[in-house]
Amino acid sequence: MASQFFIPSANVTSGGGDAIYVATVPLKATAGPPQLIMSMAYSLNIWNLQHFMVLIKPSSSIPQEVIVFDFQPVNPESAEAAVSIISGNSVPGVVMQRKLKNIPKQRCWMVGSSKGNNAMEMAIEFNSSWVTGLRVGFHDCRHYTNELLLNILPEKYKLLSDSQEATAVSIHLKNG
Q1: Residue 155 in contact with residue 176, Cβ under 8 Å?
Q2: PANTHER family of this UniProt entry (predicted)?
């Protein structure tokens, strides 16, 4: 349900630059040891985190695909990565960029319009300087999303709760 993740703000607009969205998906692992480790973390109530991504829908009058930007482990399916992440250690990360045909209908919220009509260029420039060592709770997809949005939105934006003890992460737009 969207309301548990998103607290709307009066300064969310759809006019101006490119449309900017945040989308979430539950963290998942492949079958085998990574899935067992993640299941243990969930059952012990250590984690109930979501993976956050930034979506950019260009404002061009020509229908275009949506571009997704996110930050994740280089090898998210490995047992070593799962153990390192659960234990609070850093793993090599990678900034991903891919296309979607449409904006997802669930777990996706518009957070505003970009400063101009070049959000893609701003995101690509931002990505070139992003440090790719990933450490959950300290430098992960939430931090990436926060920082990218600070660079492309005119409003202040903040994902709530950097605490590793949080059982859920909420989205909040702070008034400028």
Answers
A1: yes
A2: PTB DOMAIN ENGULFMENT ADAPTER (PTHR36342)
